[in-house]
Amino acid sequence: MKTDDLIALLANEVVPVDRHVVAKRFAISLLCGLAGALLLIVTAYGIRADLAVIATTPLFWAKLALPATLLAGALLLTTRMARPGTQVGRTWVLLAAPAVIVWIAALAILITAPADARMPLLLGSTWRECLANIALLSIPAFIAALWALRGLAPTRPRLAGAAAGLLAGSIAALAYSLHCPEMAVPFWALWYLLGMLLPGVLGALLGPRLLRW
């Protein structure tokens, strides 16, 4: 068989790839993950009773801003991991910046607070269940993010899995903010960030097995 004939045979009836396939898959993934987390919040945990009142305070929106900004950075990182040869670039800055800002604020609050108030600011009254709750709420988004990646072409499965886990953890923390009564910045700086990190670690461990071609 001549080379030209072989090329023509291989190219015969090739279906064009949808240019928006990554955006479509992750749009579905985000909707499913967020819907799953909100459904769990409403049915298993409940929305905090004073949400309408607390939502009028800037501190509440600052609390939501932490997982929301991390969600944006994790989404960008995950979508880049879904494409072969795509550079991560400065995406890590988008993930690191919110964490650094909230830790600076938390340290400033802890330093200026009375000594006997520092541990309550850091631990609150729900630190024991915070990690487990965020991890549980991340399960729907974690499954959805892995589904989105498995239909694409990640070439660095460990990093892609970690990014998917961070994305799921951010969605979970955002939903959990509607239930969590803690309003102290040091609490979010420690427990929210650890809660979001757990699915990321799990994704890094499972990525090479679940995302390999």
UniProtKB/TrEMBL annotation:
Coiled coil: none annotated. The keyword Transmembrane applies. The keyword Transmembrane helix applies. The chain crosses the membrane at residues 26-47, 59-79, 91-111, 131-152, 159-178, 190-211. InterPro entries: NrsF (IPR009495). Keywords: Membrane, Transmembrane, Transmembrane helix. This is DUF1109 domain-containing protein. It comes from Stutzerimonas kunmingensis.
